[in-house]
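Q: I'm building a small set of examples for a reading group on sequence design. Run inverse folding on the following structure and report the sequence directly after it, with nothing in between.
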């Protein structure tokens, strides 16, 4: 039983809205590094059953890839409270992925939202 969720434009918004912590692996079947990253991602999903691990096939879901400006795959994105708190292209080794998940878990989302609000205020002031 796969512990990852196939995300499509039909279920994406609902998944991100209903879950406070969603990881998203943008991948494609022709991409070698994506295939190398897949078992690492799958294992992380099994190790973190409380989190939602989504996968976006960029071939099948080009609109989603475009919406997030995905330039290269694999790209890992972490969304907390509907805010993208991490996005990085490249296949992460297991230790790095574990570390990233740990850091994202520790984030104080109130602080994150404050800094985003501050950035938006700053952008509007120019």
């Amino acid at each position: 039983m796969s512990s990852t969720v196939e995300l499509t434009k039909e279920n994406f918004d609902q998944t991100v809205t209903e879950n406070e912590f969603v990881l998203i692996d943008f991948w494609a079947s022709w991409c070698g590094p994506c295939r190398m990253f897949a078992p690492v991602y799958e294992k992380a999903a099994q190790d973190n059953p409380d989190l939602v691990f989504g996968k976006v096939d960029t071939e099948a879901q080009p609109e989603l890839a475009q919406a997030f400006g995905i330039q290269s795959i694999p790209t890992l994105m972490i969304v907390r409270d509907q805010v993208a708190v991490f996005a990085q292209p490249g296949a992460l080794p297991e230790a790095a992925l574990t570390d990233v998940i740990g850091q994202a878990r520790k984030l104080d989302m109130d602080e994150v939202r404050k800094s985003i609000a501050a950035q938006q205020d700053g952008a509007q002031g120019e």
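Residues 36 and 126 are 44 Å apart (CA to CA).
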